[in-house]
Amino acid sequence: MSALSFEPPRPLVAGPTPQGSSVPNVADLKRRADAELEARRPKQQRPPLPPPHILASLVPDSPAFLDLLKVEQKLDWTLLRKKAEINDAMGKPIRVKRALRVFVSNTAHDQQWQKETNEAGPSSGPEAVDMDSGKGIAGWVLRIEGRLLDSGNARLDKTRRKFSTFVRSAIVELDNREAPTFPEGNIVEWHPQGLQAPLDGFEVSRRGDQDVNCRIVLHVNHYPEKFRILPPLAEIIAMKEGTRAEAMSAVWKLVKVLGAQDKDDGSILKRVGDLEKILPANVDSIPFHQLPEHVTRFLSHPEPVIIPYTIRVDRDFHFHQKCFDIPIELEDPVKSKMSSLLTSFDGEEGKEIVKLEDKVAEMLYFTRDLKQKRDFLESFSTNPQAFIQNWLAVQARDLDQMLGYQIGAGPNGGSVTEEDLRRSDMFTLPWVDEAITVHEASRMEQERRRM
After folding, report:
1. What pLDDT digit, counting tens, does each position of 39-58 carry?
2. Structurally, what CATH architecture does the domain formed by 227-300 represent?
3. What are phi and psi of 229, to 5 degrees?
């Protein structure tokens, strides 16, 4: 390994610009810096819209504008109410009961009776048998197919799902297939893979020229996940199968009926009544947060659907005499539409609405400023003398307040300004005599105390 060598930094020397390369000018660098500064600067929140009565006073001669404000208020109220209803519905499970119909069949190929019934040809001789690919060797193909039955509701039947999306796992157990003769094995399993596309059915292909009995075990994928409730919990809550939430809700009702909560501490559950059958025997009470753990011990996977079937090779195609309907519960498709509707409020449409509201707010504040200027100039043109006197009085009062020129300012003082003291009529008011009397009495009291 060669040692690393570091060279001292060399001074930058301006050299000739290579052909075809462009050096950014000062204006481009300044524009980029301003853009980065604008991106880092926190965005100011849009000021709230003026109240409706102020909006109405801005444009008093436009009934269409007032009608538009009423329609906007009604629309905003309706959208908020609908959004709250959708959020409430999204928090509750919306399930629809449907039926999944399963069909089982099998086909046979290259059987001896099939070769005898066919006409003599190259395909019937032993030279047509390929031991590597299995072509020409007697065998059969088992097919397991399924589809969701129509409910008669166009909204529910619009969405089509593959059969494999309803199955968590599928197992086929074959009989009378010994290992030396049939090395493939007697059990075939299917489990969904992460990137595997949904399937309409499953096929199991094997070699053989004899009938085979098999058991098809289907584990249905419920949504939300269902469990089989084991005794004694199933006997206590009178429920054999249900979701985890349903089981916990039933146990909580039992706790309320038995009064198992401690009166002093509501987070403690006492082991009373039927709770003795599901809680440990070596404790008298448990914390409330441990109740789900004890309930989960009595939850198991639901019983699978078992379909017995005999694979027959004495005919080209054999179909099971019965089809099997499996009751399942699915999520209502309207829930996904609700979710997309909620996301649309924050999507491109929502951003466009916010931009329009910002533009309306800017125009309203601009209109308010224009109205204030118009009222200012209109009052000046109506009576210039009174306008100037009032304006000077207001300016003087504001100036005194800013500079603090107030007489008696304090906890018990008033707000008498120097402008008021310049007027002679102020000293003829009724409170002047009382103020002089109070002032002279306090002065005489101070002189008496000095003596």
Report:
1. 665 555 555 666 666 666 76
2. Orthogonal Bundle (1.10)
3. -90, 125
